[in-house]
Amino acid sequence: xxxxxxxxxxxxxxxxxxxxxxxxxxxxxxxxxxxxxxxxxxxxxxxxxxxxxxxxxxxxxxxxxxxxxxxxxxxxxxxxxxxxxxxxxxxxxxxxxxxxxxxxxxxxxxxxxxxxxxxxxxxxxxxxxxxxxxxxxxxxxxxxxxxxxxxxxxxxxxxxxxxxxxxxxxxxxxxxxxxxxxxxxxxxxxxxxxxxxxxxxxxxxxxxxxxxxxxxxxxxxxxxxxxxxxxxxxxxxxxxxxxxxxxxxxxxxxxxxxxxxxxxxxxxxxxxxxxxxxxxxxxxxxxxxxxxxxxxxxxxxxxxxxxxxxxxxxxxxxxxxxxxxxxxxxxxxxxxxxxxxxxxxxxxxxxxxxxxxxxxxxxxxxxxxxxxxxxxxxxxxxxxxxxxxxxxxxxxxxxxxxxxxxxxxxxxxxxxxxxxxxxxxxxxxxxxxxxxxxxxxxxxxxxxxxxxxxxxxxxxxxxxxxxxxxxxxxxxxxxxxxxxxxxxxxxxxxxxxxxxxxxxxxxxxxxxxxxxxxxxxxxxxxxxxxxxxxxxxxxxxxxxxxxxxxxxxxxxxxxxxxxxxxxxxxxxxxxxxxxxxxxxxxxxxxxxxxxxxxxxxxxxxxxxxxxxxxxxxxxxxxxxxxxxxxxxxxxxxxxxxxxxxxxxxxxxxxxxxxxxxxxxxxxxxxxxxxxxxxxxxxxxxxxxxxxxxxxxxxxxxxxxxxxxxxxxxxxxxxxxxxxxxxxxxxxxxxxxxxxxxxxxxxxxxxxxxxxxxxxxxxxxxxxxxxxxxxxxxxxx
Length: 780
Description:
Elements: E1 12-16, H1 20-31, E2 35-40, H2 64-69, E3 74-77, H3 80-89, E4 92-95, H4 103-109, E5 114-119, H5 134-141, H6 163-181, E6 186-191, H7 192-200, H8 204-211, E7 225-229, E8 232-236, H9 241-250, H10 265-281, H11 285-294, E9 299-301, H12 312-317, E10 320-322, E11 329-331, E12 336-338, E13 375-379, H13 384-394, E14 398-403, H14 429-434, E15 439-442, H15 448-459, E16 463-466, H16 470-476, H17 480-486, E17 491-494, H18 511-518, H19 538-560, E18 564-567, H20 570-577, H21 579-588, E19 605-609, E20 622-626, H22 630-639, H23 643-646, H24 654-659, H25 661-673, H26 677-686, E21 691-693, H27 704-709, E22 712-717, E23 721-726, E24 730-732, H28 751-757, H29 762-770
Parallel strand pairs: 1-2, 1-4, 2-3, 4-5, 5-6, 13-14, 13-16, 14-15, 16-17, 17-18
Antiparallel strand pairs: 6-24, 7-8, 8-9, 10-11, 12-18, 19-20, 20-21, 22-23
């Protein structure tokens, strides 16, 4: 009989955080059933008074974003005795700067707690007390410039919508659950900078050290990307050579196809972009999307806060729900569980509503879950799926990465290494970065013999994770019910782009399409140009939320013995990170718009060109400055020698500085243009002002803070040599100290070991190889 009890139904979480990251972390825990008690100052969390559009929040009311993030939580005004009782009774405390307590002291005083700290740079190290905002963290991460995003004739652009704060919160939730599940009593030290690196960049240090070149040397607009159709914006993309060839056929130019040189598609697409854009401009978005879908070319409408809730796919799936207190529309959870044991959202609390309620006494902790005893079948490819299973591999699980010689993992193919290079398929830095600690099995599951072996393997696995389009497993007879028939307590994580049902169910989905379909693209770019795709966050964000859903399923099975289906649609995860757009429009009728590198909170906030020459000999060297408070503004005026600004009443408030942003930008551009980036950072950081170099991402390992925290670990790969690899963005006080134990596997490296473990004889394994069902090299 299915238990309806939420997986975290007996957890008590003390929420000592402010800001989006902590609030989203504890929202995910509350969705899982935890009792989240928000300890607030007498004036309340600043999010209660926040609206990105500047909507008026009436006295006694709360901002809509707070009402979304605080669903199902309780609120107490935290006087010392009550706070002590809360921490004594809790299982978890989530902390961010602004609380009067220190997380290390909380951990020492209450050693039973998982104490999750969310800070810009981590609790220790030379940068631990440096000021930062979402904007400057994106700069330091390399995410602003690293993927070549944006018009090369203008300043690069950050990813809009505070996306890094949301993903930091999702990382914090996953780390908190993992720590509590393995026994608790731990300090979880999350660095938002490291979370940004994992969210906005494609393993650039590993890429640089393995191949001796950066991922991108120059910025460009993705082609075709977001383009103007006859009746609005539409997004088309090509992640593979075949998709570009199909696009050529679709627009009536098969002569552009050069199958002998598939590595030239980016240059070729850029060259022919004007012709493609002309073709798009002559047709409606509906016509273009119908054709593109028929040709299996990734495509999407460009979604924003105003049109999201009218999309037929989201309507069919019931993606948006009414806020239980204030009635506006908000996204549902970022994953769907079967059996459905997620807590339905309850109303957000009024300030201090539960102060008179005494904390629930802490229960005796159950024995922890050992990740080292967990066997995971990883039937994923590219980035989204492997990033989910990679986290489990770094926590000690045995992860078996399934490929086929006829169709290796796509990340093996996108490093730009030509087939003339020996073992070219083993030289992809992105594959290497996403698959350390895993084992590799090749198996052609299109054959009946391959599926027979697969079913035997599934019998031995606790978890199966896949990110094919839904029709693939269905056609192979390997859906959830089929897997349950083989392994009744299996946890099956399915990661379709758009979900297991709905009109867009079978549409091709890559990171950029998910960004287009969720609103992440809409807020990225200069306001006088079409939006630009972040081309990054869609994949790792999906993997991260799938990991959260998987951890809930593991806790459910640990308590009940039941398996579970986790449907972690990529677009649902992205819609949660972009939730503020839908919420602001539904609650206030306000459409959030992209604003280049400006934002709704800090002012001034922008990128400013420095006097430096960039490492490629150009003038693409920038710093990010983000003034978040009036005190920081006064410090900035003194640091740059502008006493006239300091005494100007029109600039004394954020509202005034927003109104005069152009003039302030001009002055800061002049000041920065006469100085190098290092000097600017030294001057402004010393004055307490959030600032960051717009880092080339392959230089991440040179940052002293990351060196101090040991974020990069060195591994030797048998084919591609020694390189450094990024880890998880958290340090756990109970370890492990080292996350990467062995390099990414060679294709089919563990065929013999794994198949013999299933009871296959040497002769049977040899027959599988001679028949091409397994192998160690891509099929020609």
